[in-house]
Predict the 3D structure of the following.
Amino acid sequence: MIKGRVSGTGADSWVNLTSRTDPKWRAGILTTGKRHPRYWTTATSNATITEFDAALPVIKRPAKADVVTYDELSD
């Protein structure tokens, strides 16, 4: 990866990185706090990444009536 310029401001700033072999592959890494990726871009798609360290919802066990076994499905 080739380090590019810093974009954004303050707490929302990131370093732009570009692939040395394919400039269509890029990433932005946050410069403050934890070094999480902010975005990825490829030749065919891109993704903006948000809400790192956000609390996940509590996962509850399903009701017994909502559970099926593999044997029940394969009949």
